[in-house]
Amino acid sequence: MRAPVRTRVKFCGLTRDEDIRAAVDLGVDAIGLVFHPASPRAVDIAQAERLAALVPAFVTLVGLFVDAGAERIREVLRRVPLGALQFHGRERPAACAEHGRPWVKALAMREGLDLATEAARYQGAASLLLDTYDPALAGGTGRRFDWDRVPPALAPDIILAGGLDAGNVADAIRFVRPHAVDVSGGIEAAKGIKDHRKMADFMQGVRDGDQTR
To answer: Which of 9, 73, 143, 198 is deepest in the core (most CB within 10 A)?
Structure first.
């Protein structure tokens, strides 16, 4: 008998100790810290060190960067025990791969994007993250894209993001069948401030989706 499928979950853009603790208690697989200064969810290195100390073993701490220089990333890695890196800019594959960590490449689902070509280009990525396109934002738009655009053959290897919340994540899992889902704005009371009830409801939505995928 085939083992039940469980969609992995990443909560992103956490900035407070209490939100880290709540995420861990709810059983998330990964926690994202944003190192892009222009983001309202950004953390500095000292803040990230404190938050990282609250993340136990077997929960992956992911650092999110947008066109950051190599030295900036190395500076973060010297002080923050990131288990993976997530790139949301125009980074080339070689730049993503040079830091000795598993890495995720985010792709904004703009019109005309050829997913097969991008998947081949970033074949060294641990996964591709598909997010809603916005010309002014590198993620965190709070809007979903058309899930029909995800090829079924690619879906088991992708992380689905973009406008997910407790009200639609079960449908997203049933429809797309991704490896993982990534949420930020959909679990917030305000940018960078997580709502613990929304966090719990999101996790329930994931479980509901997994029951029928």
So the answer is: 9
- Torsion angle in degrees (nearest 10) through CA of 208, 13, 38, 102: -90
CA 212 – CA 174 distance, rounded (Å): 7
What is the DSSP track for 112-155?
A: T--HHHHHHHTTTSSEEEEE---TT-SS-------GGGS-TTTG
Backbone conformation region of residue 185, classed left if phi is above 0, alpha if psi is from -120 to 50, else beta: alpha
Class of domain 8-212: alpha beta
Q: What is the pLDDT of residues 16-35, one digit of tens each?
A: 999 999 999 999 999 999 99
Q: Enter the tokens of residue 90.
A: 């125009």
CB 28 within 8 A of CB 58: no
Catalytic residues: 12, 131
